[in-house]
């Protein structure tokens, strides 16, 4: 060490070598003490940064506790409101590929099961959807409604390959021209388990449920567009189309990213029961347990019972007769965390298939005819 070796060629002016040795021993002690202090300080720093980061990145949802068991909707107040006319309300879903046809048939029946009275509108891209798939998807109450594809801005640069058609969802806002005053959009991979008519009475223009990720992002501030409440308006639609081209945002998540940017500070945060994303169950099982008996809409994000691929790519169009087998095949994913929800989806599908057997069977003959 330099500190010690610096005395090597040094001729002391005094001859008290013992004292000199004493001094260098003291130096060694001081250096060791300094090193110990340094190490302790490093350890403390790591500890405090860890503690702080926990404070910064955890939400009350990560710290979820079983506290509030009261209903989500104030029934006394809600029943005092004048309800919108059924034909001024609509549930809309979008179909971009044939592989979602059976999911939409099941979604349609799940709406009937809870006595939903709103119009059911199925947006689809005629250039991508076969007659057979459209027949299946509309067998249980959805009315097909062709829409034009809305291309992602900047020629799709920065948009995830899977979401290239997803901006077409923004056609929702054109429904004002067809007399729809309140719309609930449901992704095709959702299943309705309780009636949600109260959403149509919201006095706001836009509402959605915050997103949830199983990874480090966790409970997010951004909303998920799987379930959207909106009051359609062509004027808003035109405004969106114009601003989409110039707004600055990370567009990898397509329409969801844009809507988060557009409604930014004005979106109403809806309770999680309106978009019970499977990711919640993985992230905070206790929260899922508490939501369970109030959940209106389950969102099959992580495992889609009607798709064959583990990555939910939807490349294969499953025959409606192989759905039971497919669900059995997909059980066990995520350590079986969603087996119960998959089972629920299948129970509803079995009912759908039984009740709409004639219509669904006829769809099958479209393919054999063409
Ligand atoms: C739907 O309506 C039927 C007939 O009125 C009723 O028997 C049933 O309980 C209702 N279901 C729900 C979920 O409200
Ligand atoms: C849900 O279950 C809890 C107990 O687990 C109960 O207190 C509450 O009343 C139930 N809510 C509804 C809407 O059934
Ligand atoms: C649904 O039907 C299939 C085939 O008909 C059957 O194997 C399966 O057990 C049924 N599942 C449920 C949950 O009812």
From TrEMBL:
Molecular functions per Gene Ontology: glycosyltransferase activity
InterPro entries in UniProt: Glyco_trans_8, GNT1/Glycosyltrans_8, Nucleotide-diphossugar_trans
Superkingdom of origin: Eukaryota
Transmembrane segments: 28-50
This protein's UniProt keywords: Membrane, Transferase, Transmembrane, Transmembrane helix
Keyword Transmembrane: yes
Family annotation (Pfam families): Glyco_transf_8
PANTHER family: GLYCOGENIN SUBFAMILY MEMBER
Protein name per Swiss-Prot or TrEMBL: Glycosyltransferase family 8 protein
Phylogenetic lineage: Eukaryota, Fungi, Dikarya, Basidiomycota, Agaricomycotina
């Amino acid at each position: 060490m330099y500190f010690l070796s610096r005395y090597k060629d040094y001729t002391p002016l005094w001859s008290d070598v013992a004292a000199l040795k004493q001094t260098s021993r003291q130096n060694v002690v001081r250096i060791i003490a300094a090193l110990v202090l340094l190490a302790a300080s490093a350890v403390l720093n790591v500890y405090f940064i860890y503690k702080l980061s926990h404070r910064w990145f955890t939400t009350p949802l990560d710290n979820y506790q079983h506290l509030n068991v009261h209903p989500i909707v104030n029934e006394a107040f809600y029943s005092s409101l004048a309800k919108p006319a059924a034909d001024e309300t609509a549930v809309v879903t979008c179909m971009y590929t044939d592989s979602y046809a059976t999911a939409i048939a099941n979604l349609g029946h799940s709406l009937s099961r809870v006595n939903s009275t709103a119009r059911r509108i199925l947006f689809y891209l005629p250039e991508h959807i076969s007659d057979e798939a459209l027949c299946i998807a509309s067998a249980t109450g959805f009315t097909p409604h062709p829409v034009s594809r809305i291309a992602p801005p900047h020629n799709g640069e920065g948009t995830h390959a899977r979401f290239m058609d997803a901006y077409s969802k923004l056609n929702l806002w054109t429904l004002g021209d067809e007399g729809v005053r309140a719309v609930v959009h449901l992704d095709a991979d959702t299943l309705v388990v309780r009636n949600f008519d109260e959403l149509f009475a919201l006095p706001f223009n836009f509402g959605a449920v915050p997103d949830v990720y199983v990874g480090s992002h966790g409970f997010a501030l951004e909303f998920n567009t799987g379930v959207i409440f909106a009051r359609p308006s062509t004027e808003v639609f035109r405004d969106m189309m114009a601003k989409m081209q110039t707004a600055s945002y990370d567009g990898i998540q397509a329409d969801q990213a844009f809507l988060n940017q557009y409604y930014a500070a004005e979106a109403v945060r809806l309770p999680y029961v309106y978009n019970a994303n499977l990711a919640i169950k993985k992230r905070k099982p206790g929260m899922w347990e508490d939501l369970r008996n109030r959940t209106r809409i389950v969102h099959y994000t992580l495992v889609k019972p009607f798709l064959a691929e583990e990555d939910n790519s939807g490349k294969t169009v499953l025959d409606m007769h192989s759905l039971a087998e497919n669900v059995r095949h997909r059980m066990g994913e995520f350590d079986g965390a969603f087996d119960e929800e998959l089972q629920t989806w299948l129970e509803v599908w079995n009912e759908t298939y039984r009740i709409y057997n004639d219509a669904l069977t006829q769809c099958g003959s479209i393919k054999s005819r063409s």
